[in-house]
From TrEMBL:
GO biological process, one term: cell adhesion
A Pfam family this chain is assigned to: Ig_CD22
Protein name: B-cell receptor CD22
Gene3D superfamilies in UniProt: Immunoglobulins
Oligomer status and interactors: Predominantly monomer of isoform CD22-beta. Also found as heterodimer of isoform CD22-beta and a shorter isoform. Interacts with PTPN6/SHP-1, LYN, SYK, PIK3R1/PIK3R2 and PLCG1 upon phosphorylation. Interacts with GRB2, INPP5D and SHC1 upon phosphorylation. May form a complex with INPP5D/SHIP, GRB2 and SHC1.
Membrane topology of the entry: Single-pass type I membrane protein
Keyword NAD in record: no
Protein species of origin: Astatotilapia calliptera
Amino acid sequence: FVYEKNFRTLTAEAGLCVVIPCSFTTGFGFTPKHIVWYKCEAYSRCDYDHEIIFHSNKNNIRVQYGFEGRVSLLEPDIRQNNCSIIINDLKESDSGLYRIRVNGERKWREDGFASIQKTTVSVEGLSQKPRVKLPTLTEGQQATLTCVAPGLCSGSVPEITWTWRGAGGTESYITGSSTSFRTKTLTAFTQRHISTLTFNSSAEHHNTNVTCKIRFTGEKTTEEASTLKVNYVKEVNITGGTNVKEGETLNLTCSVESFPPSLIMWSKLGSDITLHNDTGSATLSIINATTEHSGQYVCTAKHMNNILQENIDITVMFISHV
Ligand SMILES: *[C@@H]1O[C@H](CO)[C@@H](O)[C@H](O)[C@H]1NC(C)=O
Ligand SMILES: *[C@@H]1O[C@H](CO)[C@@H](O)[C@H](O)[C@H]1NC(C)=O
Ligand SMILES: *[C@@H]1O[C@H](CO)[C@@H](O)[C@H](O)[C@H]1NC(C)=O
Ligand SMILES: *[C@@H]1O[C@H](CO)[C@@H](O)[C@H](O)[C@H]1NC(C)=O
Ligand SMILES: *[C@@H]1O[C@H](CO)[C@@H](O)[C@H](O)[C@H]1NC(C)=O
Ligand SMILES: *[C@@H]1O[C@H](CO)[C@@H](O)[C@H](O)[C@H]1NC(C)=O
Ligand SMILES: *[C@@H]1O[C@H](CO)[C@@H](O)[C@H](O)[C@H]1NC(C)=O
């Protein structure tokens, strides 16, 4: 009476949950009263009382050790002929065969049916990773990272922690950060667990890793590391000599440490002509300098929508040839 298509091998992960889909049809005159699920090893008939892991009559039935409170019917109304169950907080030892029995009445007499086939559940190690959402990070602005635990299980609430590996390489927490945890109930049996990490991002966070770690019941853990990219820009830095003699070569390097890299342009004050441009760092070279090269030069750095400028005086000294 139980659809054979229900029975197959299900694989699930430790710490998460599994739904064993099941439905049944009954003969005329049979009124289903209770649903019983058994779990057993391959050699067993799988219908002994000590193998019961769930009984919809909760009053007088003891279930196998370790299954208390972890198994629920998806559809509590047995008249719907839906015997699907969810098992939460899975452990590897939950692997095995599962068999269903429906107890009821026919012509005022107790009657019942058990499925012929069994469903095989195989619980493997936790391999699903949390999903981490990173927004665009900008230095000096509040950033909120989101981490979503895998699985949509209604079992124990997992513990979510955030760690940070700074430039020093040691694992710690982001100073001044705060976290918040919430559980979103999707249906009676599905929940999503989410943690957010909020902090004021700065250049020191750029290219460092932040890890979201999730701990489910039974020390089952999974984690995901993400590399932070922070939009930032430091001051314009000009290096090189500014005084040369006529005929010499002058090199002036303008650089700006930033992410993403800035476009650096050299021009002479009062002129629109770009003498040289490059990304990150640009070197202005004046070969065989003449006194006409003297004057103020401008280094302009374009970083996203910002423009930074720095002026510098160049003096080319005239040498009288006697
Ligand atoms: C059994 O009930 C659950 C929960 O309402 C539902 O998701 C599932 O599709 C039902 N199964 C069948 C075979 O009707
Ligand atoms: C973030 O830090 C910067 C510099 O430390 C500060 O100027 C800014 O006000 C802070 N922003 C927030 C939202 O806390
Ligand atoms: C950051 O994590 C990535 C993988 O996501 C790894 O390849 C990289 O080595 C890590 N960097 C540091 C500094 O730990
Ligand atoms: C400017 O650039 C030079 C050469 O790259 C570097 O040694 C120096 O530390 C920089 N100064 C600042 C303030 O960034
Ligand atoms: C200026 O830079 C050029 C290459 O960019 C190099 O060949 C030359 O030696 C440099 N001159 C000085 C005086 O630093
Ligand atoms: C940068 O220089 C290249 C040639 O070297 C030129 O084609 C380009 O237009 C310049 N970009 C800007 C923004 O001046
Ligand atoms: C430097 O400039 C002077 C004057 O214009 C010229 O006579 C000389 O040939 C130039 N030297 C080089 C190496 O270009």
